[in-house]
Amino acid sequence: MSAATAVINQWTQGRIARQGAVVLVGTLLLALSARVEIPFWPVPFTMQTFVVLALGLVYGPMLGVATVVAYLGQGLMGLPVFAAGGGPGYLAGPTGGYLLGMVPAIWIAGQLALRGWLANPVMAVAAAAMANTAVYALGVVWLSVYLGSMSQAVMAGVLPFLPGAALKVSAAGLIAWGLVRMTR
Hints:
The protein is an all-alpha fold. 76% of the residues lie in helices and 2% in strands. It is built from nine helices and two strands; from the N terminus they run H-H-E-E-H-H-H-H-H-H-H. It has a two-stranded antiparallel ribbon with strand order 1-2.
């Protein structure tokens, strides 16, 4: 068993109550990360993708997806967990694609962690970067509906975010790699 699998098993094995607590902690981290915001138009810059990537690499695909789905469910119920509140209308807005993109992103990060991508820091950062593309892919497609074209969506919803995304991806990968190293 790889070190990454051992770390993921620490979170995912055991009682349903423990798994529920881990999911709840993850949704709390996501809600808090949504509040760390730099206003941009039409989509704000938040720390949510950092948390999604880090949780995916540490929680694994199943518990990671459960966490993001629970988080999105909290927001759909009207809890103010997103950057500007909550409610069903929020997911229908310009940020909806980015939020929905967190589901495949956390699954990809978890799968890559299970497949040994946390073996060294370069691979860990690459895993986070690959997972992050799912957020942008769904986000920009959804945003293009609001802005009228794919090129406008890329200009407004991807390019301004790339420097910050590079930092978040690097931090998520390095933190997950460090956690795995600590368990050896």
